[in-house]
Amino acid sequence: MNFLTSKNNRILQGDILTVFYVILIFFGMFLTILLGAWSGIIFFAISFFLMFYLLLQESNDYYKASSLQVLFAATSIIPMLQFNFLAFFSADFGAVERSVMLGLKFVPLFLILYTIVVTYSYEVKAVLLSSVMLLLIGLFYPVDYFQVKLTYFINSFLPFFSMQVLMLSLLTTSSNNLSFLNDFISRFESAVMVFLKIFFWLLPLSFIFYIAGWDYFDYSNLIELKGLEPYKGVPLNWYTQFGGGFIMRFTHFFEDPILLGYLLAFISVYFFVRGKLLMSVFFCALIILTLTKGAMLWLILTTGFFTLKKFGINNRLVLMSSYILFLILMSLISFKTSLGVHIEGLVSPFVNSSQYTLIEILFGHGIGSGGNLLKAYLGGGMEHTAWLESGAESGLGTLMYQTGLLGLSTFFIIVYKILGVLKSHISVGLYLGYVFNFLLQENLINFSYISLLTLIILYIELSLQKEFSYES
């Protein structure tokens, strides 16, 4: 069975695989609701090995491209449909079952990790394995709250390092591989189209609820399973403070309007790259309705770095030095606004490092020892000062506090290497915009955000490599 015969055939297979993955995940959720958490874990293992077996029947190029395709579905289509699906059945399962069902989306992450270990160069394997070893040290650190530990490991730090290693490897090894270039580009485009079809089908209904309110729905049971307090029956982050009151964000059918904001930003860039400016502007307008400041800042930073690159400022040392300078500047400024919380979370692990032991400075305090996830897990049991001192609300602060200087150094080495291989001005802007935004956004150490960044940069860069290959 040859999947690489023509572009139309690859797109058709891309649509089928995307829909198959989505159906597979929701079947796993339904099975977990009916039979309990262990059935979900068993289904997770079976589905992983099933997809693994099917993909290995084809070439490595097909396997790599397909893994990345289902990765996009896991970070876009699944979050769009998952929340209301779980809310409908929320009275029939508990917190453990919910965690298992949410964990099903990580099937592509493990497929990709296997891909790196089996098919890439020894240098890439060494970088990945070094990162994993570092994370395992942090994982087995004597820290309480194993659930927080495991969530940070699988949902944050493991994808954070592995996706960037994957990006670096593909950008340096794919330039002469037309089979992979063609397959990845067509499959990624087909996965985006599947997402957009579902997104636009649901868009009129989502606007009705956005304008009329979500009073017909009550998500309280599902929200309480996370240990959080609902606000008017919906997640609190569906509202943001404005003046003396609260204003509702546009959420479409996503649970997290912040993730939606970043996803819309990536889609906006996708259409911009393809020359469809009207669609790009449309998605930018939707970002404003989500009131996601981080996504807006990321697009502004992307535009700024894109402009600098256009004017020839592309020396990696200059860019990295400006990053360090920006970090020092932030540590000297005190803001009496909500931004001040992010800055305090950024600088506290560095300022307080003189109080740490040598082991804590080198290896951190252990994965799950602080941050927003620990605060959410403990509810009101974590003091505000201790929360910020653990690097909360800052990606870089969280990385420093939990993984130490070794984790931080690994991150900077990867950033430096990636900047050396990016060719497109837009890609450089995207990546640097993410890295700078990472200073003030803890949620950017997250499976969904880093995966979306990896995919859009790979799409831009590999499309450029494909053009050069045909020209030569």
The SSE string, one letter per element, is HHHHHHHHHHEEHHHHHHHHHHH
Mean pLDDT: 79
Number of strands: 2
* Radius of gyration, taken over Cα atoms and rounded to an integer in Å: 22 Å
Structural class: mainly alpha
Report how far the terminal alpha carbons are from each other.
31 Å
Low-confidence stretches are 1-6
Count of helix runs: 21
Could you tell me the strand content as a percent range?
under 5%
Major β-sheet strand ordering: 1-2
Shape: globular
The total tally of domains equals 1
Please summarize the sheet with the most strands.
Answer: 2 strands, antiparallel
> Level of helix content?
over 70%
Kindly describe this structure.
The chain is an all-alpha fold. The chain has one domain (123-472). The chain contains 21 helices and 2 strands. Helix 1 (7-35) crosses helix 9 and helix 20 (425-437) packs antiparallel against helix 21. The longest helix has 35 residues, at 178-212. It is globular, with a radius of gyration of 22 Å. It starts with 6 loop residues before the first helix and ends with a helix.
